[in-house]
Amino acid sequence: xxxxxxxxxxxxxxxxxxxxxxxxxxxxxxxxxxxxxxxxxxxxxxxxxxxxxxxxxxxxxxxxxxxxxxxxxxxxxxxxxxxxxxxxxxxxxxxxxxxxxxxxxxxxxxxxxxxxxxxxxxxxxxxxxxxxxxxxxxxxxxxxxxxxxxxxxxxxxxxxxxxxxxxxxxxx
Length: 172
Known about the structure:
Blueprint: E1 13-15, E2 18-20, E3 25-29, E4 36-41, H1 45-63, H2 67-83, H3 85-96, H4 100-120, E5 127-129, E6 142-144, H5 161-169
Antiparallel strand pairs: 1-2, 3-4, 5-6
Helix pairs in contact: 2-4, 3-4, 4-5
């Protein structure tokens, strides 16, 4: 019999700065034998819209974060996943029914993706623009920088749930 997984976080969905209770949940079954392993909150269209509104509300503030802070957040997430790798591997076995070796690979690739995203922060830069191509632009140079544009919506598949979500979240 498979163990029932109790998450180490509040019930509901993380929306904005807190956790939002849901009116419904669904049973997560171990695909190998149908054993109940957890209960998961079910989202609604209204909750999805609330999540989008919460993301839009903080987008301007997010665009002002320094490169150093953005990199630090990504490194912290990488370290947290690394510290909880074994637990994540076991959860993935229960959720997907895949062999542990495949779930170890998924977690390892997830950690690598967060590390790569953190490293990429130092490579994000702007460019100069030769303003003197136009009359009146003699002696002038323009420049632009890359800044976060706003919220990103990503849809992750079920076959590699942690890795496919990471592929959307880490670069964003």
